[in-house]
Amino acid sequence: MLGRLRTVVKASSSNSIRNYLGYTSGVQKKTVTVIPGDGIGPEITSSVMGVFQAAKVPIEWEIFDISGGQPISQELIASITRNKVALKGPLYTEILSGSQSRNMELRKALDLYAHVVPCKQIPGITARHDDVLVDFVVIRENTQGEYSGLEQVLTPGVVQSLKIITKEASERIARYAFEYAKANGRKKVTAIHKANIQKQTDGLFLATCTEVAKDYPDIKFDNTIIDNCCMQLVKSPEQYDVMVTPNLYGNLISNIGAALVGGPGLAGGANVGEGSIIFEMGAHHVAADIAGKDKANPTGLLLASVMMLKHLGLNEHATKVEKAVKAVIKDGTLTSDIGGKSSTKQFTGAVIDYIEKNQN
Predict the structure, then answer these.
(1) Tens-digit pLDDT string for the chain (360 aa)
(2) Which of 57, 125, 313, 326 is deepest in the core (most CB within 10 A)?
(3) Are 249 and 198 in contact (CB under 8 A)?
(4) Interior/surface letters 18-46, b for 16+ CB within 10 angstroms, e for the rest
């Protein structure tokens, strides 16, 4: 196993990741591509790996270090395409200068059209709305809209950005949202839009969602304008169940959702395509100010890894990890971002201790 890791690690800067041996047994292991990422990424990725080792998860890792703005390589795309599953830390994108977002590059290269972020309160964490249950899922169209990257200078001082919305992409994300609701016992899908102003682009998105909704008569459908949605989320988040959105609005809402349940370190997420899925934190914060200081909260990536295990059919391992994370939080072992004093390593150690003490 050690030899295997040495052939796939791409100049990883994290010794804890480099030295991870994985769980070796007679069980057939599944291979997962790992991108530790920037900022706190290597620390929280190492946390997941340590927890998986304690839980005896039959996974083998292919690790690619693209920190510091390194480009997305064809080898990385090939690895994700081959393994069909990846676990990713946050990737930093420069403001104003620099190249295209590598997050967007991955989504486009692999056609990861749906960004799925469950936002649910965790017992033991003080949230903004302790009097109501926050439990909704944001499903964001991941390939078009304002993120199409089509910008140009028309004349000095005048720039243009093209917002692309197609019926095909809108129908695909709408149908995914309704199928997700159906599979997960959800009762309502809400389309988020700005069709009162952007009548052609958001109008097409809303009209397509409304049309798709007719195929799912057992699931309630409604719609909300994005600015009103932001207010309603802060005021009465319990009214939302599954929310389907164009690209930019989904990014805004998933960050609000993470804040509602306690902060950016708590929500897991997944970028879903027909052939591949990348699991990551729901809010993509590199947290460069605390990187390397043993302060990062690994909960979001741990919950994303639970989603990954369920996707891989490793339900027993998923339950084991999820139960341990939530038990440790409920017991009061919290990192500083959620009111505690525990370090990343202490939190991870507590999760590992719980798993080892409750191992079958």
Answers:
(1) 222 222 233 333 333 343 344 444 456 789 999 999 899 999 999 999 999 999 999 999 999 998 878 888 899 999 999 999 999 998 887 776 667 788 888 998 999 999 999 999 999 998 878 788 899 999 999 999 988 778 899 999 999 999 999 999 999 999 999 999 999 999 999 999 999 999 999 999 999 999 999 999 999 999 999 999 999 999 999 999 999 999 999 999 999 999 999 988 899 999 999 999 999 998 878 888 888 899 999 999 999 999 999 999 999 999 999 999 999 999 999 999 888 999 999 999 999 999 999 876
(2) 57
(3) no
(4) bebebbeeeeebbebbbbbbbbbbbbbbb
How large is the C-alpha radius of gyration of the chain? 20
Query: What is the pTM assigned to this prediction?
Result: 0.89
Question: How far is Cα 100 from Cα 94, in angstroms, rounded to an integer?
Answer: 9
Nearest Cα residue to 259 out of 138, 349, 93: 138
Tokens of 210: 């409304």
CA–CA gap between residue 116 and residue 83 (Å, rounded): 20
According to DSSP, the β-strands at 277-281 and 268-272 are antiparallel
The DSSP result for 127-170, as a single string, is -S-TTS--EEEEEEE-SSEEEEEEEEEEETTEEEEEEE--HHHH
